[in-house]
Please model this.
Amino acid sequence: MFSKTSKTKQTAANNRGGSATEKKGGLSVINSDLRVTGDLISESDVQVDGTVNGDIRTRNLTIGQSGEVRGEIIADKIRICGSVTGQVRARDVSLADTARMMGDILHESLSIEPGAHIEGHCRRIEGVAEEGGLTVIQAGQVVASHVKKEQSK
Model:
């Protein structure tokens, strides 16, 4: 029951399941009656059905029809059904027919359903990098964090 063999088997089974960094938490939801002021940083998926006044950095982001975000968004994948005011940087961006986007979109892949409202520029990029110096994302993977931008002299 408590032999070395069972511990070894448990450790091997845990290692086969992947590392903790591969399997981050589930889904964080900002409900429609919740208003958040400040930045959101998450390594899991986020769904916004309420209001966020601040920047969002996450893996996958869904903004529901009643959701509203005012700030910069950096993610691997973004689905916008509600309202966004600010710049969006992601590998995969999808705008539903109910989306209202006011700002620039930097993307590798972009899909826009008929009826979506966009005021801003859309620009295809190969990798997404944060200029502020926190995280560098390329091909949807975080390749470096807490990186400081070099200043030209």
Confidence is low (pLDDT under 50) at residues 6-22, 128-134, 146-153. The chain is about 10% helix and 50% strand. The longest strand covers residues 56-63. The radius of gyration is 19 Å.
